[in-house]
Design a protein that fits this description.
This protein is α+β, with helices and mostly antiparallel strands. The chain is built from seven helices and four strands; from the N terminus they run H-H-H-H-H-E-H-E-E-H-E. Strands 1-4-3-2 form a four-stranded antiparallel β-sheet, sandwiched between helices. Heme C is lined by residues 43, 47, 59, 61, 71-74, 77, 94-96, 99-101, 104, 144, 146-148, 150-151, 154-155, 158, 172-173.
């Protein structure tokens, strides 16, 4: 009744918003801005501060057993797994050409190309159309950069890391975001 009253009074209901569309590329950029900010905040304000600067608590891959903080990459993966349970409108993961965990290696050609492109130029995101099965996706790859000393020291020292010469500011991998689009 209230809505009908507003319409009768000549006040438009906000239906126009439904008709607007946003470019998939912009959506990927927006999602990435949130992911990257949360990731940086967790790394700098929680892990680096408490583990490296204050020495209050460690960050550990085996955080349950060690009663420690989950690693930044684990926080990221737990979030992406929860999102995958909630929606199939997009998917994301953190991959690398030099993965500590082999499951975080590139599997598709587009992932390989994208990870190489952001390693070469971290400031330029990589975008491509990718068909997997019978679905076409916008696949966007963004550089994942060593923003804190903890990123570098832990990866370089990790027994499973194929690379031991990362430096602060280096691209260590990439965030891959996939959005299903009409082919
Ligand atoms: C205390 C150790 C530690 C710290 C600190 C750390 N990482 Fe990792 N990182 C790991 C481990 C272990 C994995 C594998 C996690 C998994 O099982 O998925 C990983 C995964 C990753 C991956 C996915 C590819 C791979 O290597 O498996 C990227 C990219 C990455 N980290 C970058 C970073 C960046 C950038 C930072 C800082 C913001 C950082 N890491 C901080 C240990 C660490």
């Amino acid at each position: 009744m209230a809505a009908a009253g507003l319409v009768a009074a000549g006040i438009a209901m906000p239906t126009a918003i439904v008709a607007q569309s946003i470019d998939a590329k912009d959506v990927a950029d927006m999602l990435h801005a949130v992911m990257e900010s949360d990731r940086t905040v967790y790394t700098k304000m929680v892990v680096n501060r408490l583990a490296n600067e204050e020495g209050v608590i460690k960050a550990s891959e085996f955080f349950h057993d060690d009663k420690a903080l989950p690693l930044p990459a684990q926080m990221f993966r737990f979030g992406s797994e929860l999102v995958a349970d909630k929606t199939d409108k997009f998917f994301y993961s953190l991959l690398s050409l030099w993965p500590v965990n082999k499951q975080n290696g590139a599997t598709t050609e587009v992932e390989k190309e994208g990870l190489q492109a952001v390693a070469d130029d971290p400031d330029e995101p990589f975008y491509a159309e990718e068909t997997l099965g019978d679905q076409t996706y916008l696949t966007a790859v963004y550089a994942d950069v060593a923003v804190a000393p903890a990123c570098v020291s832990c990866h370089n020292a990790h027994k499973d890391s194929p690379r031991t010469d990362f430096e602060l500011g280096d691209t260590m991998g990439g965030v891959v975001i996939r959005i299903p689009i009409d082919g």
